[in-house]
Design brief:
single chain, 370 residues, mainly beta, Jelly Rolls, flat, binds calcium ion
């Protein structure tokens, strides 16, 4: 392997990611495709025997410190009938296919019920790929007037990820953004405790010449703050801070508290996005904060989704059925209602997994008989 700056190569003995182990780890940069730079003796892995026709899970991790960035992986394969091994640099695309974990979701096409009753909608997820989904999530919407019963069977409502996008500085003093505290509000305006929060992603933070780490945006102390970098680099707008709240909460708004000692970085134009899984984002609010140093509220008026975390890993070719219990309102219109269900990865468990578990939006139609 050749890479810049630090790189790791993980190879599985099967198509399953869970069997993968690190076979090369480089802690300093090589030249581009410099497979024999020997900056470290570890550029070449131990001998790994692979079987023709078998599928293997392969994963490359790379991190760039600054400047150029690249990563390449070579292997040795039989040259022909005589089985003389020759080096192929890098591995050709024809030997690679994207890693997908596919699953299908099924729901009844239609269920029939009366006003004011409870209905149980079975939702079945069947994993069709080779790998294991260590944690899956089902997401659905609640039709207007419907609610969950007391025993919600593990379903809860809310969003887990919060993203603040700063688009301008309130006083046009420079290309920075800063947050002393961000408070997320849930039902009846209550503040969500931040003890389980962590920074999922930040576009930039000033940690070399200032104490501007992103985690200071929710440490409960208005004297500490997140500040975008102005030490080595001064990136321009937009700046983003993505927070994983660790659990799903209904959201009714956000309070932005700017720095108190200095105005630099006061956010002007902003956008707030929310997500169930850290992958699919919904615009929740936008506006412009005033440059007066006051704590300011951004209301969120989105419909809240229902979420169900699958308690156990989903093995290949195994079906899981969970019940979605719904209380039908006593007054409903005549038109049938539809509920859409989809399956997602939990990004906090499988951060490399892209998007949904397969193409799996399914719709159940609820017929309310009057
Ligand atoms: Ca570099
Ligand atoms: Ca703070």
């Amino acid at each position: 392997m050749a890479g810049d700056d630090t790189t790791q190569l993980r190879l599985s003995s099967s198509a399953r990611s869970s069997d993968a182990r690190t076979i090369i780890a480089l802690t300093s940069a090589t030249t581009y495709r410099g497979f024999t730079n020997q900056v470290q003796s570890r550029q070449r892995s131990v001998f790994v025997n692979m079987q023709a026709g078998q599928r293997y899970y392969i994963e490359v991790l790379t991190q760039n410190a600054s400047g150029d960035a690249h990563v390449s992986v070579a292997w040795e394969i039989p040259a022909g009938q005589g089985r003389v091994y020759e080096s192929a640099r890098p591995i050709e695309g024809k030997f690679l296919s994207p890693y997908v974990v596919d699953a299908s979701v099924s729901v009844p096409a239609s269920v029939s019920t009366q006003p004011g009753t409870r209905i149980d909608v079975p939702v079945t997820i069947r994993h069709t790929g080779a790998d294991v989904v260590s944690q899956g999530i089902l997401e659905t919407s609640l039709p207007a007037g419907f609610r969950l019963p007391q025993n919600s069977q593990g379903w809860r409502s809310g969003y887990r990820y919060l993203r603040i996008i700063a688009q301008s500085e309130a006083g046009a003093r420079g290309p920075w953004a800063a947050i002393a505290e961000v408070t997320a509000l849930t039902t009846r305006g209550a503040a969500i405790p931040t003890s389980a929060w962590r920074v999922a992603h930040v576009s930039s933070e000033a940690t070399q010449c200032d104490s501007g780490a992103a985690r200071h945006a929710f440490d409960g102390d208005t004297a500490t703050y997140w500040h975008t970098d102005y030490c080595a680099h001064t990136p321009t707008f937009p700046h983003t801070l993505t927070i994983d709240m660790g659990a799903w909460h209904p959201l009714t708004g956000l309070i932005y508290t700017p720095r108190s000692a200095m105005q630099n970085g006061n956010i002007g134009a902003y956008r707030i996005q929310v997500s169930v899984d850290g992958q699919h984002w919904v615009n929740a609010a936008s506006g412009t904060f005033l440059d007066d140093g006051s704590a300011q509220r951004a209301p969120i008026t989105l419909a809240t989704p229902l979420v169900r975390v699958l308690a156990t890993p989903i093995q290949s070719a195994v079906s899981h059925t969970v019940i979605l219990p719904l209380i039908v309102p006593s007054q409903t219109g005549r038109a049938p209602l539809t509920v859409e269900v989809r399956a997602l990865y939990d990004r906090s468990v499988q951060p490399w997994s892209d998007g949904a578990l397969g193409n799996n939006r399914r719709v159940v139609t609820i017929q309310v008989q009057h």
